[in-house]
């Protein structure tokens, strides 16, 4: 697998090395993937200044010019999809097939942004609803807010960054992107690709910087928008600290699904089994809580145990890898500890609890009570809690009984149950006969309750990065 030999910061669109760097090693086996340069305050100031200078010009660009560069970036990424997939697989310990899917999703995101920027939303209205408004009209337009600070997590080091970068550039906002400190290489390499695509100086920067420096950047008055995907604690702290800025938060959850009495159980299992363990559960919408009508519970439990037993850890860059390891040994220990706490308090493990370094085998639990971390918190690991329920009402209640609200799913063949689920369950995305974990990149995506603030998805992020202005003028 051919990987880049060197990595650079993108500072105002200029590729730069630094005196300080960090080793990035594959979590699975410790292989050196590359050395990532680390940005300092001088790089942040340089990026902010370049973005501030380009913004008045970039915000006035014709739409076709932005669309053309986004499409060119997508084409360059498509030409290097296997290089990027290899990088993601190694630095994020993501199974190669999933890493390749992530790259292709990022390509779709760029092309979606190219298409969406050609049809900016606008509204025209006549104002002669009374005599005061005679011969007047109003036009509602959206204008770019300014510099966007985009902070993305380790689990989708390319696609979740593209979900912030592409919409910003599509509306004419310069963007400064911070990758996760454990997986910076993929996004740093993407910066080289953006330079090659021809994005002008100042339109973008990609800085591998400490969290303290990112917070300093967020507080700079020149930054108009903060788009953050990551931990619940850090996200809400950002919003509280910078209440006058536009802040978009995607903070994860503990997604639940309910297999009702009327469901096609085989269909439900085809969807739910991989959803529980893909990428060792390190997905904010991975299936963590599964409630099952009691008559279906034995079949579902047996299927989960059998499926989990077949997931054998392999190196993430193997082309057929389906299960590897967690991002670090400390994270594997955390999840193992949560499971042990639940077992001590009466939960039952249907699969053996085994861990070796960062490799944690899939865990299927039942009889997990509310108040235990594996039920209430975001496990972000290969753990699923299976619980039987006695009625449809109880199933919906259990789905809703969480402070999170990112995704929830119902498996049913009953139309009334579908409609009731849509009305009653509080989550940003509600899936019917499809497990949590589903996302098509152009769709609106965001959580309610403690799962987030605002919407992502290319078109919807573009709205967040713009402000509305209403022009009232004579109309003849």
Précis, in short:
Helices cover 39% and strands 21% of the residues. The chain has 476 residues and is an alpha/beta fold.
Note the main attributes of this structure.
Aldehyde Dehydrogenase, Chain A, domain 2; alpha/beta; 22 strands; 2 domains; 7-stranded mixed sheet; 476 residues
Explain what this protein looks like in three dimensions.
The protein is of the alpha/beta class and about 475 residues long. It folds into two domains: about 10-250 and about 450-475, Aldehyde Dehydrogenase, Chain A, domain 1 (3-Layer(aba) Sandwich), CATH 3.40.605.10; about 255-440, Aldehyde Dehydrogenase, Chain A, domain 2 (3-Layer(aba) Sandwich). Helices cover about 40% and strands about 20% of the residues. The protein has 15 helices and 22 strands. A seven-stranded mixed β-sheet has the order 14-17-18-13-12-19-20, sandwiched between helices. Strands 9-8-7-10-11-21 form a six-stranded mixed β-sheet, sandwiched between helices. Strands 5-6-22 form a three-stranded antiparallel β-sheet. Strand 1 and strand 2 form a beta hairpin. Helix 4 runs parallel beside helix 5 (about 160-170). The longest helix has 21 residues, at about 95-115. The model has no long low-confidence stretch (mean pLDDT about 95).
Percent range of helical residues: 25-40%
Give a count of the beta strands, DSSP E runs of length 2 or more.
22
Second rung of CATH, namely the architecture of the largest domain:
3-Layer(aba) Sandwich
At the fold tier of CATH, the topology name of the largest domain is: Aldehyde Dehydrogenase, Chain A, domain 1
Within CATH, the superfamily of the largest domain carries the name Aldehyde Dehydrogenase, Chain A, domain 1
CATH class of the largest domain: Alpha Beta
Mean pLDDT: 97
Mind describing the biggest β-sheet?
Answer: 7 strands, mixed
Taking all Cα atoms into account, the compactness measure Rg is 23 Å
Which structural class do the helices and strands define? alpha/beta
How many DSSP helices?
Answer: 15
Strand order of the largest sheet: 14-17-18-13-12-19-20
Terminal Cα span: 66 Å
Strand content: 15-25%
**Count of discrete domains:** 2
Shape: globular
Outline the low-pLDDT stretches. none
